[in-house]
Design brief:
Helix content: 25-40%
Strand content: 15-25%
Number of domains: 2
Oligomer: single chain
Number of helices: 6
Distance between the termini: 33 Å
Number of strands: 4
Order of helices and strands: EEHEHHHEHH
Length: 131
């Protein structure tokens, strides 16, 4: 019940449409609305709050170009001209990719870490790209 005495159901609303939320091995699409006692097997509000630490967001880009557009022109130029073998490998895998790009793909993380080591991006910028 809110301050005005109106009964409001307890809900949890994730509004990042490009994320996938995970809890206890179950995945939920980015835009979900869960109420206690509803959801056809989905966890209740209380269960979600109890398991909050196990929920992670996966950012999903529909294709490699959408991911590539996260970078500034200067970052793109630095990546494209990098001599780092891992950066070249990840860039080539992106070029060959025909599907979605997921932020929790370990290859993507390794490529971004290599870009940090090469001083192309900062650790803060990596977080910004993946958020």
């Amino acid at each position: 019940m809110n301050a005005a005495g109106v009964d409001i159901p307890r809900t949890l609303n994730f509004i990042r449409p490009n994320a996938i939320w995970r809890m206890n091995g179950e995945e939920y699409p980015g835009l979900i609305w869960i109420q206690d006692g509803e959801g056809g097997g989905k966890p209740t509000y209380a269960e979600i709050l109890a398991g909050w630490e196990t929920i992670t967001a996966r950012k999903v880009w529909s294709n490699a170009m959408e991911f590539w557009n996260e970078f500034t022109d200067q970052e793109k130029q630095s990546v494209a001209t990098s001599e780092d073998t891992l950066i070249k490998l990840v860039l080539e895998e992106l070029r060959l990719s025909r599907g979605e790009i997921w932020s929790d793909d370990p290859r993507l993380g390794a490529g971004l870490d290599a870009a940090i080591a090469a001083q192309i991006i900062t650790a803060e910028r990596k977080i910004e790209i993946l958020s």
